[in-house]
Specification:
The chain contains six helices and seven strands, in the order βαβαβββαββααα. By secondary structure, it is of the alpha+beta class. The protein has a five-stranded mixed sheet. Strands 1-7 form a two-stranded antiparallel ribbon.
Length: 169
Amino acid sequence: MDARPFIDSLDFAGNGRQISGEIPVAGLPRLLDALEDSQGILQYTVRGGADKQGNPLLDVSITGSCRLRCQRCLSAMEHTVRLDTRLLLRDQANLDALDGDVAGGEEEAFDSILAEVHLDVLCLLEEEILLSLPFAPKHEFGACQAADGGNMQKEEKNPFAVLVKLKRN
């Protein structure tokens, strides 16, 4: 893996620069806490630019896969990562003003981050991936390895079967 990429976010956006690369999932320590294992490779692209009002922004694209733990059967499951995010760059005063602004505007259509002179690109990518992960990942119904998966399906088909038996007596 190459050296950890850092950018001056405002300069990067103002000059329309782009950075791309690959990172193994094992290189993102905070993400590892949410995963089943450290397998997987993620590809990323970060492009600088400006919105219609001339505000600096970063377009972040991440693709790849990682392995999560199914909350039904507790076994590993493959999770496809496909993120395309636009992040507006703000100074601290503008971010504080956005937090206090209750009335929504067009600017709130995109997330805002603090413009930094020494922005760690991998930390930014890791944060975006963490925010995109499902809260309670589960296999598709029927694909789960749960030991009582067949019983769960029967119970879900007729949850009032016990009440019907009581009514007949």
